[in-house]
Amino acid sequence: MFSFSHSFAYAVALSGSISFISALSLPTRDQPTHFIPRQASPGFSGCVYPSGWTNCNDKDNRGCWVRDDKGFEYNITTDYEDFVPQGTTRTIDLTLTEEPYTADGTVKPLAKLINGKYPGELIEACWGDTLIVNVKNELPTNGTTIHWHGIRQLGTNQMDGVNAVTQCPTSEGDTFQYKFKLTQYGHTWYHSHYSSQYSDGVAAPLLIHGPNSDQWDEEWAPIMVSDWIHKSAFEAFHVELFGPGLPMADSIVVNGTGRYNGGGDYYRNKFEAGKKYLIRIINASTGFHFHFSIDNHKFKVISTDFVPIEPYETRNISVGIGQRYSIIVEATPETVSSNGKYWMRTEYVGGCNAALTGVPPSDQDGQRTGIISYADSTGTDNPTTTRWPITVGCKDEPYEKLIPKVKWEVSAPQNDVNDDVFEAGQDQDPSHGRFGVKHWSITDTPMWLNFSNPTLLNIGNTSFDKEYAVVDYNFKDGDNWVYMVIQSGSLDSGLNKLATAHPIHLHGHDFAILAQSSTKYSRTASPATFNLSNPPRRDVAMLPAGGFLAIAFKPDNPGVWLLHCHIAWHAGSGLALQIIERQDEIAGFIGAAAFTEAQDDCKKWDTWLEENPDKLDLSRDQEDSGI
Ligand SMILES: *[C@@H]1O[C@H](CO)[C@@H](O)[C@H](O)[C@H]1NC(C)=O
Ligand SMILES: *[C@@H]1O[C@H](CO)[C@@H](O)[C@H](O)[C@H]1NC(C)=O
Ligand SMILES: *[C@@H]1O[C@H](CO)[C@@H](O)[C@H](O)[C@H]1NC(C)=O
Ligand SMILES: *[C@@H]1O[C@H](CO)[C@@H](O)[C@H](O)[C@H]1NC(C)=O
Ligand SMILES: *[C@@H]1O[C@H](CO)[C@@H](O)[C@H](O)[C@H]1NC(C)=O
Ligand SMILES: *[C@@H]1O[C@H](CO)[C@@H](O)[C@H](O)[C@H]1NC(C)=O
Ligand SMILES: *[C@@H]1O[C@H](CO)[C@@H](O)[C@H](O)[C@H]1NC(C)=O
Ligand SMILES: *[C@@H]1O[C@H](CO)[C@@H](O)[C@H](O)[C@H]1NC(C)=O
Ligand SMILES: [Cu+2]
């Protein structure tokens, strides 16, 4: 019988004292490696595992991943929080530049690109790999950091890529090396966490091959969907704070292609009749919730963020910012179109956030953004299909449909949940923020950070600047739970916060959604409604307008972790807090080298600032929280 204490399982035991094994050495087997080719992008040569492990992932068994000669498997039911196969190390070089870019027919003069592309460089890797990513900043007037959205960063808080929290920004001409292990699988995106920078283009997909909860024949590389703004996002953010009105996006861009005032193009891809396609969607928007559908095609949803779920069938999917879904579309339309072509629709939700400018009227009905052509279709004519009768709303997929494959049973919390109720909203008292204008916040004070002073270099502190919005989670039992409630708007009316829906993202953890309600939290009645039995889990969840979100996670990852709204304008305005998890254990957990490196990088940043006052003067140019 195989036992999980086997030496090459990835083991993490974090109760009381920490024993963390970041990169277990390989079993003493032969050196040759095993190779699993997969075809998501042409440049990728496949997965590499130690000799003795064989691929068990084929089109009839997508749930299996690798198997050894004793019959042990890593598969869709393996608890990836505890057991991870031993992959390979991949090194990737990224360069950030500022240059004009045209995604929708109209030039965006100050686009900021990763390796000259938008979406930026696709990083493709495999479950259990270690990534080394060298990020070179050639942006003339901005620092940068890169955040690996949803990646656990277990024991590597300093690699989370949040300036003023885990590091100083990387300055112009400098390179920062990120190194971390991929303990999860699925797809995500990576993006800048420096002010509004990702909204200008510093965002790209990250695909980690692993098992899936249903069968498919062909896989597509991830599709990054986003709103697109022609002017600089830094200018647009100025409008968020000072008006007039709210910042508007110009178009919807599907994997880099969109239409604006008659220019640009639709996203295009092909289906072969009868095949099942694994399609991976990422909402990389700035301010924008969307519904995705393909006319006449049903599909199955198989994952929420990094969490594989029991497949369910639908015709449309509601994707909040930062969220990801994998879907399997069978190329068998319910009604065959006359020319073999079908509209792919990406509709933004009015009332959820600000509207679009410049969308061609013909595209407005259900927002036509892409064309799927069957292999046998001909001609250059557009599809003639009509939209499914769907209604769009500013909310997550139905809670009860999101059933995780690997079950989590949530036990009673270590904290009193009523001590940890946070009000997310727009603070109606301008004196609580900077510049005498209204700000978004989730603690009493809108977040405002000093790029030169990351929290990670302040972990000896007994108190923090209120604008750092630090929340102390000093709960020592990493095997058990802490709960948090996030209320949209005021619960106790102290600050008169305005209620709306927000996509809430937590770093360093997947969280269980104990409740997602559109009514106000009640300290007496709500806890009894919490779902503790394999609730949905992910790393971004919609907080319903006027309602609340109750989440649970295990404090097994000492570090400083951001929790924020993923509407970039709201995070920039201050809707964010940082959880200091097991403060006195962070230094030992991530290791002393992390701190000396962070200090060196801060020196470089400070020196660059001193030497380039004409390029960047933060007393003048910092208008947002910094994240
Ligand atoms: C899948 O993996 C789990 C644990 O990793 C193992 O217990 C189970 O037997 C595997 N399933 C199959 C069909 O081998
Ligand atoms: C970032 O760069 C933009 C130009 O693309 C500039 O307008 C803005 O002031 C810079 N902001 C910061 C904080 O570096
Ligand atoms: C989406 O864009 C990425 C990055 O440019 C590219 O590698 C990938 O192939 C595209 N995916 C699809 C499905 O078109
Ligand atoms: C992305 O998420 C935002 C905010 O939740 C939403 O407004 C927007 O419509 C989403 N975009 C898509 C294409 O689903
Ligand atoms: C999406 O499709 C499902 C299944 O076809 C349907 O029940 C549901 O009402 C649709 N959702 C919306 C928001 O229209
Ligand atoms: C808890 O959530 C899961 C996943 O959505 C669902 O299957 C289950 O029915 C829920 N249980 C209760 C008691 O609501
Ligand atoms: C930001 O932090 C640095 C380093 O701690 C400090 O020298 C500087 O005075 C701070 N700036 C402001 C505006 O507080
Ligand atoms: C940490 O504590 C010192 C000393 O009290 C204080 O000056 C500093 O501002 C604190 N750091 C933060 C990030 O609040
Ligand atoms: Cu928000």
UniProtKB/TrEMBL annotation:
Source organism, top-level taxon: Eukaryota
GO molecular function, one term: oxidoreductase activity
SUPFAM superfamilies per record: Cupredoxins (SSF49503)
CDD domains the UniProt entry points to: CuRO_1_MaLCC_like, CuRO_2_MaLCC_like, CuRO_3_MaLCC_like
Domain Plastocyanin-like, first and last residues per copy: 97-212, 222-375, 452-584
Family: Belongs to the multicopper oxidase family.
Protein name: Laccase
